[in-house]
């Protein structure tokens, strides 16, 4: 890297934001001589018995037990209060099953609020690792619905 | 009795309602925003549902989220507390439509009393004295001038949809009418989305007195002895007491009778408050609040009633259970609103970590608060931290008890209105009683040796 050039702090900031938003483990970019690599802290294993403080990709969650999100998993959360449905209609197949690979934008479930069917989509691509809510059960705002393992890029 | 109530509020009032539910054996459901994950109402309710992010518009005012939370938890009724959705006729109507009982009057009554010009009309029709002024909304500057010629100046132009002093302008003489009319109308449009205004004679030296009422679906209406809420800052009440000091008995009877007449004419159900101004021996209706009020504990202390419990009985279709002697007040009560505001920095709102919280106790002291040591006051909501209510055999003893309790009250981590209340209680004129709503406006706060003192300025 050319020592006379200022550090590309703005670019780094944008990358940190991108890592945070996408939920991916690492982003590496190269332009000419400059290479920037941003890694999510989730990849660093926390020391034993220490409760992790916050997870990248998740805003300010207060949880006492260590969350699977520390293993690089990404939680898809409910944006509304309502009833969780895994299938588009009773008797039909679930939108997704554990083990399915989904792409960002794909519908994962429905949360019904006041007769309105809100389709909840994956915000990142990856594999469904766990379904966290019960079909036809109530979910609250910000409640995790699925754990996804983000696809490696 | 209904079996489950959703409490659509936060802070001390949510706790107040949850406590009443628990004593009645009614299950409670709290709703909370992500900023209130550590709040006591979320902890103390039987169930709780997170309804949205911190901004009130996305959480405590989020009607679909609150209705969904009620449906998911199987709540039969929604108690809106005060503020937020408490006087939102549309919300009450949605509750009615989805089969949820709204703790309050019918949506039509909320809408009618929410329109201040319409409320004035309803009061006048019920034979309740209203301040001389226009019969309904004023459509033009000329119309305001006509009213001015009739009732005299100064006049006050007020927003029909208003409240809290917003959309209000005073015209001292006819020359100021145009500016006052246009200013009030513009502000009303900006704040309430409705620019319509009405006009009243402006009474400068007045006291704010109000009558608590409760009405059930069996035709029984109870009116309680008045509260005096004249200690205000920018139309926000700070201290409320009952009975109103020095109020003649015939005025009290008149206030209670007028309130009963208005409530009777509305076919009202639930708790409500009829507000009046009182000046030179006369009282005039200003507005009716169709909800539980912040200062309801003052009445509870001197009358020995539980207003929230009675609300829950009414919404269950049961009869009011007010003891006979509740209407002859026992002693005197004063409420102090402890707000997270810095009195020495123009009441700048405070937020942050409550380091020490040690509320007062002992005889005749009640504290309604959601605080605890270690609680973080979020910056998103109103600044009320606690209500201190003192009760004693007469006003003098209440003031002494108030001084003692305020002095004991320890909150650290932020500035509060505690020292202001101490200064008010030390004021000679306040001690004599019967001060007007100009009390704080006429005084300046001085800091002396760590204490605050009020100094009257003469203009």
Question: How are the secondary structure elements laid out?
Answer:
The complex is a heterodimer of chains A (153) and B (459).
Chain A: H1 9-22, E1 26-31, E2 34-39, E3 74-77, E4 82-85, E5 101-102, E6 107-113, E7 116-121, E8 126-131, E9 138-139, E10 144-150
Antiparallel strand pairs in A: 1-2, 3-10, 4-6, 4-9, 5-8, 6-7, 8-10
Chain B: E1 4-7, H1 11-24, E2 27-33, H2 40-44, E3 47-52, H3 63-73, E4 77-79, H4 89-97, E5 101-102, H5 107-114, H6 116-125, H7 141-151, E6 155-163, E7 166-171, H8 177-192, E8 197-201, E9 207-215, E10 221-223, E11 227-233, E12 236-242, H9 249-266, E13 270-279, E14 282-289, H10 296-303, H11 307-315, E15 332-339, E16 341-342, E17 348-349, E18 352-353, E19 356-358, E20 365-369, E21 376-377, E22 384-392, H12 395-408, E23 410-412, H13 418-426, H14 428-432, E24 443-448, E25 451-456
Helix pairs in contact in B: 4-5, 12-13
Question: Can you tell me about this structure?
Answer:
The complex is a heterodimer of chains A (153) and B (459). Chain A is mainly beta and 153 residues long. Chain A has two domains: 9-68, no CATH class; 73-150, OB fold (Dihydrolipoamide Acetyltransferase, E2P) (Beta Barrel). Chain A contains one helix and ten strands, in the order αββββββββββ. Chain A has one helix at 9-22; strands spanning 26-31, 34-39, 74-77, 82-85, 101-102, 107-113, 116-121, 126-131, 138-139, 144-150. In chain A, the strands form three sheets. Chain A has a four-stranded antiparallel β-sheet with strand order 3-10-8-5, with no helix packed on it. A four-stranded antiparallel β-sheet of chain A has the order 7-6-4-9, with no helix packed on it. In chain A, a hairpin with a 2-residue loop joins strand 1 and strand 2 (34-39). The two termini of chain A are 25 Å apart. Mean pLDDT of chain A is 76; it is low at 42-64. Chain B is built from 14 helices and 25 strands. In chain B, the strands form seven sheets. In chain B, strands 9, 10, 11, 12, 13, 14, 15, 20 and 22 form a nine-stranded antiparallel β-sheet that branches. In chain B, strands 3-2-1-4-5 form a five-stranded parallel β-sheet. Chain B has a three-stranded antiparallel β-sheet with strand order 7-6-8. In chain B, 32% of the residues lie in helices and 29% in strands. Chain B is α+β, with helices and mostly antiparallel strands and 459 residues long. Chain B has helices at 11-24, 40-44, 63-73, 89-97, 107-114, 116-125, 141-151, 177-192, 249-266, 296-303, 307-315, 395-408, 418-426, 428-432; strands at residues 4-7, 27-33, 47-52, 77-79, 101-102, 155-163, 166-171, 197-201, 207-215, 221-223, 227-233, 236-242, 270-279, 282-289, 332-339, 341-342, 348-349, 352-353, 356-358, 365-369, 376-377, 384-392, 410-412, 443-448, 451-456. Chain B folds into three domains: 4-103, 3-Layer(aba) Sandwich (Rossmann fold); 132-201, Dna Ligase, domain 1 (2-Layer Sandwich), CATH 3.30.1490; 207-456, D-amino Acid Aminotransferase, Chain A, domain 1 (2-Layer Sandwich). In chain B, helix 2 links the parallel strand 2 and strand 3 (47-52). The N and C termini of chain B lie far apart (57 Å). Classes of the chains: A mainly beta (153), B alpha+beta (459).
């Amino acid at each position: 890297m050319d020592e006379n050039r200022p550090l590309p702090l703005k670019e780094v900031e944008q990358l940190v934001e991108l890592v945070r938003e996408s939920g991916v483990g690492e982003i590496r970019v190269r332009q000419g001589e400059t290479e920037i690599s941003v890694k999510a802290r989730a990849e660093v294993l926390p020391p034993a018995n220490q409760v992790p403080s916050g997870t990248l990709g998740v805003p300010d969650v207060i949880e006492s037990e260590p969350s699977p999100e520390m293993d690089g998993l990404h939680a898809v959360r409910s944006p509304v209060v309502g009833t969780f449905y895994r299938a588009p209609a009773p008797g039909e197949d679930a939108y997704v099953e554990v083990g399915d690979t989904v792409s960002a934008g794909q519908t994962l479930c429905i949360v019904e609020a006041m007769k309105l069917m809100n389709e909840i989509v994956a915000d990142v691509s990856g594999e469904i690792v766990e379904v966290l809510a019960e079909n036809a059960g109530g979910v609250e705002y910000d409640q995790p619905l699925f754990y996804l393992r983000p696809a490696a890029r | 009795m209904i079996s489950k109530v959703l409490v659509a509020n936060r802070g001390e009032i949510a706790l107040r309602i949850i406590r009443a539910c628990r004593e009645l054996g009614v299950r409670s459901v709290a709703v909370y925003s992500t900023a209130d994950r550590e709040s006591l109402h979320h902890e103390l309710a039987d169930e709780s549902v997170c309804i949205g992010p911190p901004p009130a518009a996305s959480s405590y005012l989020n009607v679909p989220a609150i209705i969904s939370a009620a449906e998911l938890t199987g709540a039969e009724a929604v108690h809106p507390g005060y503020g937020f959705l408490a006087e939102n006729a549309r919300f009450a109507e949605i509750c009615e439509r989805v089969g949820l009982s709204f703790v309050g009057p019918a949506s039509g009554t909320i809408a009618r009393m929410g329109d201040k010009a319409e409320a004035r009309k309803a009061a006048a029709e019920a034979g309740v004295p209203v301040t001389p002024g226009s019969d309904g909304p004023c459509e033009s500057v000329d119309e305001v001038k006509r009213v001015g010629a009739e009732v005299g100046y100064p006049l006050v132009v007020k927003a029909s949809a208003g409240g809290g002093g917003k959309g209000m302008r005073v015209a001292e003489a006819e020359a100021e009418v145009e500016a006052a009319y246009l200013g009030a109308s513009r502000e009303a449009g900006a704040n309430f989305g409705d620019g319509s205004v009405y006009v009243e004679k402006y009474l400068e030296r007045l006291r704010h007195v109000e009558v608590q009422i409760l009405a059930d679906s069996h035709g029984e209406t109870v009116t309680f002895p008045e509260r005096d809420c004249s200690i205000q800052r920018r139309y926000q009440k700070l201290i409320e007491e009952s009975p109103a000091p020095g109020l003649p008995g015939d005025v009290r009877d008149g206030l209670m009778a007028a309130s009963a007449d208005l409530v009777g004419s509305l076919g009202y159900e639930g708790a409500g408050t009829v507000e009046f101004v009182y000046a030179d021996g006369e009282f005039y209706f200003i507005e009716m609040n169709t909800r539980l009020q912040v200062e309801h504990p003052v009445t509870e202390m001197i009358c020995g009633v539980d207003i929230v419990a009675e609300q829950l009985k009414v919404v269950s279709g049961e009869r009011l259970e007010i003891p006979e002697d509740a209407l002859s007040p026992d002693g005197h009560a004063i409420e102090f609103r402890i707000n997270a505001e810095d009195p020495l920095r123009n009441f700048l709102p405070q937020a942050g970590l409550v380091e020490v919280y040690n509320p007062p106790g002992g005889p005749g002291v009640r504290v309604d608060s959601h605080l605890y040591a270690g609680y973080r006051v979020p910056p998103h909501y109103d600044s009320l931290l606690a209500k201190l209510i003192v009760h004693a055999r007469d006003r003098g003893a209440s003031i002494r008890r108030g001084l003692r309790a305020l002095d004991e009250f320890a909150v650290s981590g932020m500035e509060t209105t505690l020292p202001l209340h101490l200064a008010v209680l030390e004021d000679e004129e306040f001690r004599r009683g019967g001060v007007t709503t100009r009390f704080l406006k006429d005084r300046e706060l001085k800091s002396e040796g760590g204490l605050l003192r009020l100094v009257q300025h003469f203009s």
